[in-house]
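Annual report, structural modelling task.

Input specification for the NAP complex:
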Amino acid sequence: MEETIFSSTHTRIAVVTGGNKGIGLEVCRQLAGNGATVVLTARDEAKGAAAVEKLHGLGLSSVIFHQLDVTDASSIARLAEFLESRFGRLDVLVNNAAVGGIVPVDDPSFGLLPTEEKFSGMDGHQRIEWMWKNCRQTYDAAKAGLKTNYYGTKNVTEALLPLLQSSSDGRIVNVASSFGLLRFFTNEELKRELNDADSLSEERLDELLGMFVRDFEAGAVAERGWPTEFSAYKVAKAAMSAYARILARKRPALRVNCVDPGYVKTDLTRNSGLLTPEEGASRVVAVALLPAGGPTGALFDGGKEASFV
Ligand SMILES: NC(=O)c1ccc[n+]([C@@H]2O[C@H](COP(=O)([O-])OP(=O)(O)OC[C@H]3O[C@@H](n4cnc5c(N)ncnc54)[C@H](OP(=O)(O)O)[C@@H]3O)[C@@H](O)[C@H]2O)c1
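The model returned the following structure:
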């Protein structure tokens, strides 16, 4: 009996957003395989339940489902209440849920969601080039990109902060992207501000995102030095990384890090990636399970700390 109590208090409690497919599902599988109790969340109840069923079928009985739409405040509040009453703490939050911020266009020779074989013989650049040629950047998709990828991540994080603070080793892992690097910004002042984690505030980040939306609507993205291709996705990911750095500064007891999973074959990349979801997720899980007392406010790429620029 004593042993049960001991092990349950030392089992990591992890939440993964967007856990029903792609990298998120694999992160759930690998965290559970490493002994964590995993709350697999998904915005769609049926898809989430099916994903949990799949993991139970692999013998991973420590995975449970809870609904979470990261853009819905009441859904976020319900998850926080559930975690509070069930566990009273949270050890690992993996902010994985995201959308592309673009509208995919059907390529007749590839299809809307091509099989991975369609990309054989193409290198990474050619595959990204294909994705860029076969999408449209619209105002609505850009707004949805910011709403999910930046504000959704931020709002989930804020709601779960008290529970993470109740952990003896609270960790936040944001699934970042090489597309979120500041090298895609040509406005040097913007780049400097976003990279100045010591001075940047959440209020200023909100102002900058407001400017981006206005510039996008006015067709002034290139002229004002924002990333021009996959603009909203890149801006939202850059803002998410900047927010992680602000949070790391404000909450030194937590480990708040970002990790690039690499270019992965998922629905988001229309199966064009070079890595499997398993490979991409293993990079995320490695950061989630870093030894205690490690870096905070860092970006990891390929197993090493990397520059945000
Ligand atoms: N694939 C890559 O090459 C790559 C590279 C760098 C970074 N990333 C990042 O890796 C993460 C996972 O992407 P992925 O490639 O695995 O994409 P994916 O297969 O399209 O999965 C995205 C997940 O996010 C969920 N989601 C979207 N909007 C949501 C919302 N409002 N609330 C809750 N969940 C929501 C989706 O749920 P539904 O099924 O309901 O849509 C899905 O579970 C993302 O943060 C992405 O930016 C991916």
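Strands lie at 13-16, 37-42, 63-67, 92-95, 103-104, 135-136, 171-175, 255-260, 299-301, 304-306.
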